[in-house]
Specification:
This protein has 386 residues and is of the alpha/beta class. It has a single domain, classed as TIM Barrel (Alpha-Beta Barrel). Helix content is 33%, strand content 16%. It is globular.
Length: 386
Amino acid sequence: MEFMLSKNRKVKLALGFNDVSLVPSLSTIDPVDTDVSFELGGTRYELPIIAAAMDGVVDVRIARLFSEFGGLGVLNLEGIYCRYDDYDEILKKIVESDDERVTGLFQKLYQQPVLPELIEKRIVEIKSGGLKAAVSLTPAGALKFAEVVEQAGADVLVIQSTVVSTQHRSKSGGVLDVAKLISGLTIPVILGNCVTYDVAYAQMEAGAAGILVGIGPGQACTTRGVTGVGIPQITATADCAAARDDYFEKTGRYVNVITDGGMRQGGQICKALAAGADAIMTGSIFAGCPESPAAPYHWGMATPDPNLPRGTRVKSSVSVPLKQVLFGPSSVTDGTQNLVGAIKSAMGLCGAETIREFHETQIAVSLSFMTEGKQLQMSQRVGMGK
């Protein structure tokens, strides 16, 4: 929906997670009978929750755990794990730094070059025992290391930056031709990030197996404050899902839409899936897990930028095992644990047996949805009032 900003200019109404609610259907399904899996590059993944490629969230151990659980944990190949062979000491410095000095520390530590031999080593470590390895590179990194990634046996490559464009211009040269790169690889490529129909469709035409949706919604991300760029996640997801559906109708090739960032509760994840996502990517909700490499801290991928950092180190106040966050049992009532159970319950209430059926769920604009009747929870800062 658009409105007139001035005589000659329109503005678009964009909705986020707290602006909408899901409408239950006439018929319901037992949550046990729902299927939350999704398919990417010919492989079926049982867990529609992907751990984001953030150094404070995913290391080799977390990547392996997610694969064991039937999902994907994405390792940032341009992070500290492929810059330092012994990275535990680096993580310790980051965790122990004070807030005033930590951004400068990031900028210093990330000056160490990425080593191709460490890329290969990390991928082999993740895949040991037959597990799946998903890894991430920036567009510039993909120009340098995509061949190394494929030769090392990675199962999924994520090419990710604040915005990935198929029509990027630069006088400095070395511009990534996304379609050419993807056509030269045999592994599925996820492209990110985008928030509009046109960009999503162009990325699908370039050969992406999946696209990441979201600019600036993450807990540690400051892109929206620094640049003013982004669109709330419900509208962004729905627009990109519309591009997926149109592209599928035209070509017969189904491209996964993955909502990336802004979700810390099961209800938000459910809304993203109902809005059209096939899976979601999140990082901050896992930062408090004792298995996480920099617990209780995490930081955005753009935090170490030498010129314009767009992220900050943030601290999680919760320490819960990863398996409990994903599968329960939940010890709290605020929707931050047993995320898979929340998805299955929402699908059951909305009569959806699969995630693709969940896309048909009716969505209502509900500006008071999160506060209606919750005065006691809000005043006591419990449950939905936290």
